[in-house]
Amino acid sequence: MSLLDFCDQNPPSVAPESTVAEAIRLMLEARVGAITVVDAERVVAGIFTERDVMRRVAYAGLDPARTPLADVMTRAVELATEATTDSEALTVMLTRHYRHLPVVDAQGRLLGMASIRHVLCARVDQLLQELAQQKAPTAARN
Amino acid sequence: MSLLDFCDQNPPSVAPESTVAEAIRLMLEARVGAITVVDAERVVAGIFTERDVMRRVAYAGLDPARTPLADVMTRAVELATEATTDSEALTVMLTRHYRHLPVVDAQGRLLGMASIRHVLCARVDQLLQELAQQKAPTAARN
User: Fold this and answer.
1) Does the pLDDT of residue B142 top 50, yes or no?
2) Residue B8 or residue B141, greater confidence
3) Which residue from A27, A18, A31 is spatially nearest to A53, judged by alpha carbons?
4) Which domains are present in chain A?
5) Nearest CA in chain A to B23
6) Distance from CA of A107 to the nearest CA of B (A)
7) Arithmetic mean of pLDDT, A55-80
8) What ipTM did this prediction achieve?
């Protein structure tokens, strides 16, 4: 299974020219903690998270309605592709303390957003299935 | 194992009279996404999360330095105790879309903070151990 299978495959995205307020509105609407910033060709330009809202906007005393997203987004984004496994994604997220990882195609265009929660839940499900098969090997073979 | 074993047992906490800016400062310092609001006896009075910063402060256009935490924290907090199992905590967190669950003693005083990430990681570890024992039952019995 590809990482894409554990992803939000219709994640919200926003243009770098948008304001922080608009990005927040989209995140709240989609009930997500991070949004991918994409250019007109849907190529990933950055990521903006609720941690960024806290640190770079609220704590910094900026006005969300007057702050362009391009000023506060993270530009150097770690990206996954369709070839990335869930284990690889998990390792990156756990070691670098990321909660989200955009998944892109060969042109860098956004395909989906992997979250550590979805990947961990999927891992638990996989392990439970493996365990059930181990406990009932004959039944599993039939 | 108690839920406490999977917890941050020294979580940051803050008084309801503090400002949002102070709560944010403590969350950023501890690198956590939620902080428990406690009274002078350390009894849990509420919880405040980075989602709240996004929704109730930044999006609402409030000034973090002038907004008392008591105005924007969540008061009716779901709480866990030392008797709560990790499965019970996980069920509550997944069904209610909570990422954090304060753990309290019989008097409602803060003992630790469980996060869905820690609980899921612990679950993965448990299942991997079980699976290893299933695969090598003889070795496991010795």
Assistant:
1) no
2) B8
3) A27
4) 3-137 (3.10.580.10)
5) A59
6) 32
7) 94
8) 0.82
